[in-house]
Design a protein that fits this description.
The chain is globular and about 50 Å long. The protein has one domain (7-180): Rossmann fold. The relative contact order is 0.16. The chain starts with 6 loop residues before the first strand and ends with a helix. The mean pLDDT is 95. It contains six helices and seven strands. A seven-stranded parallel β-sheet has the order 4-3-2-1-5-6-7, with helices on both faces. It has 185 residues and is an alpha/beta fold. The longest helix has 16 residues, at 20-35. The protein has helices spanning 20-35, 48-59, 91-100, 112-126, 144-155, 173-184, and strands at 7-11, 39-42, 64-69, 84-88, 104-107, 134-137, 167-170. Helix 1 packs parallel to helix 2.
């Protein structure tokens, strides 16, 4: 019997950042997802980190599901070659649709939107709404300040110590791929 299609939601920036290592990691993630036979679920835009992930997945023959709110259709227009695209009413619905179509969540370097997406799925996990694995791809220590903030939130009594265990911080794409393979098999 064939294995069901597994999907990985990738949250990341609509910009590539100043260090080329971030865009390189985004390309490597897209390629790794496709080569592993996992569908990419992403924000549908062809810009920044998300565009890099999507292009690499496409070029490696991977399946992609893009989810974009109507107000971003002009600014972050989906590529014409995107076969599966869901247009939502708003950002909140976008996060929900992306989450509901994924078996695991990966957050790459990004800005405020990526942080919003990350904390939304972490909060849902804290509330017991899901048990999906949540990864932070910590390329070049990008997420170190966030990890320190979460540790401070816990040490100051604003979250249970188990909150830290909901996320898996990985240093590189190879480690991410290995951990996803273990979690999705």
């Amino acid at each position: 019997m064939p294995q069901p299609l597994r999907s990985v939601c990738v949250f990341c920036g609509s910009r590539t950042g100043d260090d080329p290592v971030y865009a390189e990691a985004a390309t490597a993630v897209g390629r790794a997802l496709a080569e592993s036979g996992w569908r990419l679920v992403y924000g549908a835009g062809e810009v920044g980190m998300m565009g890099r992930v999507a292009a690499a997945a496409r070029d490696a023959g991977g399946q992609r599901l893009g989810v974009i709110p109507v107000h971003l259709l002009e600014r972050e227009a989906p590529g014409r070659d995107l076969r599966q695209c869901v247009v939502t009413e708003n950002m909140h619905e976008r996060k929900k649709v992306m989450f509901m179509n994924a078996d695991a969540i990966v957050t790459l370097p990004g800005g405020p939107g990526s942080l919003d997406e990350f904390f939304e799925v972490m909060t849902w996990r804290q509330l017991g709404l899901h048990e999906k694995p949540i990864y932070l791809l910590n390329i070049g220590g990008y997420w170190d300040p966030l990890v320190a903030l979460i540790d401070n939130i816990i040490s100051q009594g604003f979250a249970d110590p188990g909150f830290r265990d909901y996320m898996r911080v990985v240093p590189d794409v190879a480690t991410l791929t290995a951990r996803l393979r273990a979690d999705l098999s």
